[in-house]
Design brief:
Layout: H1 5-14, H2 22-34, E1 40-41, E2 47-52, E3 60-66, E4 77-79, E5 82-84, H3 92-104, E6 111-117, H4 125-133, E7 138-142, E8 149-153, E9 157-164, E10 168-169, H5 183-196, E11 209-217, E12 223-224, E13 227-235, H6 242-256, E14 262-267, E15 278-279, H7 285-294, E16 298-301, E17 316-319, E18 325-326, E19 329-330, E20 338-340, H8 341-358
Parallel strand pairs: 3-6, 3-7, 7-17, 8-16
Antiparallel strand pairs: 1-2, 2-6, 4-5, 5-20, 8-15, 9-13, 9-14, 10-12, 11-13, 18-19
Helix pairs in contact: 1-3, 3-8, 5-6, 7-8
Length: 360
């Protein structure tokens, strides 16, 4: 059974999911049930549906994307083939394509799982849980790639560096130790990190980046601040892991900052997973088949995704309609977010053909 693609996409974009995703999850579950499927919601809020044989010897494919969006909500608007609104391409366009392919593909010999997460834009507990509980022979992760087949991507995690000084009255600053004065040396050290300690340039993904993004410190204007925090964004490339990076950055800064300051490096979200960079074999059947039927290029993806939670288990690609940015500027996460509805349909057709080629 085929999905009423444009109607579902319109309703999905109209349904807010920039905070509470329960209404959007209900829409997803109801849609799948109306399509004759039997979805379930797992312990962390993922929606899962399954088709095909339960024989563990048969090939197994997983289709994954997410229902949450970044704020603020932007209402749906259609202009011919172009649909606009929050989530139009990230990721309710890919979601529409994956649901259509999941429900309509012919499966002769294999298993197909649809696994949709609620929190990709925030904590990513859903993706981490799927990575720990699913095992498959291939994963297609729906994101806006312009129908290109992306078999590698940088990861993404944030951190905070807290600098400790000593408070004093600003009339006698020499009596204390101003934590803000360490910010200059710290920013310089962060800029030099990948020149001296970071991993080598990756052939597909280039160099990792380490970008200071937030500074917070100080209180009363007549008090020398005893603490300052610098936040940063890290975009790693293989083979770097988050655990190794944070330990190495602490060691590096110990030798780079003035001895009189104490400091501490910590993940910005210590209780949340940090998606590492990933790379799958470009010659795998999944990559080659999807590229052949879609006509897209085989390349790296420009942003971190939940694909990193699956790539160690099997070939993993990021694929879908829409783009992160175009010649005019940002698209995904921007006020002008849009997707071509014909491209949503083309993505669904490409995924369906790939499923039928592998699970037959």
């Amino acid at each position: 059974m085929s999905l009423e693609l444009n109607a579902f996409h319109r309703e999905a974009v109209q349904t807010r999911s920039d905070g509470d995703v329960r209404e959007m999850r209900s829409l997803l579950v109801e849609t799948l049930r109306n399509m004759g499927q039997d979805p379930e919601i797992d312990a962390v809020g993922n929606v899962l549906a399954r088709r095909g044989t339960s024989d563990g010897e048969c090939p197994h494919l997983v289709l994954n994307t997410h229902i949450d969006t970044v704020p603020p909500h932007i209402p749906y608007k259609r202009e011919g083939d172009v649909a606009r609104g929050r989530g139009a391409c990230d990721a309710k366009g890919p979601l529409s394509a994956l649901i259509d392919a999941f429900c309509s593909a012919s499966i002769d010999n294999g298993r197909l799982t649809l696994a949709i997460t609620p929190d990709e834009e925030t904590s990513q507990y859903g993706g981490q849980h799927l990575g720990e509980t699913l095992s498959a022979d291939g994963y297609i992760v729906g994101e806006p790639t312009g129908l290109d087949v992306c078999h590698a991507a940088r990861g993404g995690y944030g951190g905070r560096i807290t600098i400790y000084g000593e408070s004093a009255h600003a009339s006698d600053p020499s009596a204390g130790m101003n934590a803000l004065e360490a910010v200059g040396p710290l920013l310089g050290a962060l800029k030099r990190y990948d020149e001296t300690r970071g991993v080598a340039r990756h052939e597909l993904l280039g160099r990792p980046t380490l970008t200071p993004t937030h500074i917070e410190g100080g209180g009363a204007l007549n008090q020398v601040p005893n603490e300052c925090t610098v936040g940063f964004d890290r975009r790693p490339v293989p083979p770097e892991s988050s655990q190794a990076f944070f330990a190495d950055l602490q060691s590096y800064l110990t030798h780079s900052l003035p001895d009189r300051y104490e400091f501490e490096v910590q993940p910005a979200y210590p209780d949340s997973p940090n998606p590492d960079a990933y790379q799958s074999d470009p010659d795998s059947d999944l990559v080659q088949t999807l590229a052949d039927v879609s006509g897209g290029d085989i390349r790296a993806f420009g942003a971190a995704t939940e694909a990193s939670y699956f790539a160690d288990d099997g070939p993993t690609v990021v694929f879908g309609p829409g783009v992160i940015a175009d010649e005019e500027g940002p698209v995904a996460h921007a006020d002008r977010e849009y997707v071509s509805l014909s491209e949503v349909a083309a993505a669904g057709n490409a995924v369906r053909s790939t499923i039928e080629a592998i699970l037959s």
